[in-house]
Amino acid sequence: MLKRKWTKWKQKKSGAKISDILFIVFVILLLIPSTRIEVMGFVNRVKAKIIQPGIKKEADRIKLSASDYNWSLMSLENGNTNFNEFKGKVVFLNFWATWCPPCVGELPEIQKLYNKYKNNDSIVFCLVSNESPTVINSFVQKRNYSLPVFIPYQKTPAVFSSRSIPISFLISKNGEIVIKEKGAVNWSGSRMEKIINKLLNE
Fold it and tell me: Which tens digits make up the pLDDT trace of 125-162?
């Protein structure tokens, strides 16, 4: 039986053979723990370049309360902080983890977006992870990311809670959730820039 299959496979065109080989290599890489995250991260990186973030209609936007802003965090760069310090600014909030392929896939796009606005004091980037500082620092240094990462000191406010990651929020200066997206998205596209620029000018 195997001999028959081998003979049949040898009769395939070279393009079909290459596709078969690539598929087998892909499956093998997925089975190896050390390469699984990288492979799935690449797949999600491709996805993140295609899917655009969706903006909520004004009537559907949730406005953060004072208690939603009262959220203690630890910045890996600057120590203790409170989400309340970001009130009155545009906030890009993202929940992620180093073991999450969609998170890994969209981080390059978030880094590009951050690079465009990092010198603007009217917008804050807040990437939240529950992992240890050692794990996070090792991950971001290996990939040369300069994203502001925070670790929560207390339970995440219900308005931001989710059973899956990544999940991202874009919050206006007056505290309205303008964007809420689950999964890998193209954060560095021109559409996102237009949305942010409009919010910055409000």
Answer: 999 999 999 999 999 999 999 999 999 999 999 999 99
Q: How far is it, in rounded angstroms, from Cα 31 to Cα 16?
A: 23
Largest CA distance in the chain: 71
Work out the burial of residue 157: count CB atoms within 10 Å of its CB; fewer than 13 is exposed, 13-18 middle, 19 or more buried: middle
Cα–Cα distance for residue pair 154/169, rounded to 1 Å:
19
**CATH classification for the domain delimited by 58-200, as one of 3.90.1170.50, 3.40.50.300, 3.40.30.10, 3.40.50.10240:** 3.40.30.10
The tens digit of pLDDT for each residue in 158-191 reads 999 998 999 999 999 999 999 999 988 889 888 8
CA distance 179 to 8: 52
Instruction: Give me the pLDDT at residue 124, please.
Output: 97
Domain boundaries, the chain: 58-200
Are the CB atoms for 82 and 70 separated by under 8 Å? yes
